[in-house]
Amino acid sequence: MRYLQSTPHALGNTRLQKLIGTEPHTHLAQAARTALADLGLIRYTPAKPPLNPV
Prior knowledge:
The protein is an all-alpha fold. The chain has a domain at about 10-45. Helices cover about 45% and strands about 0% of the residues. It is flat.
């Protein structure tokens, strides 16, 4: 599998974007906080989203 380290490669997301639209992204700080909390290394409770009155 060494050839995979020395050969440039990439995956395209064109078909995914056609299916779901723009690709959703999570901010790095939020992803790191959630991962550390899932591992039990920190306490973190995500903020509840605001209620939208109808």
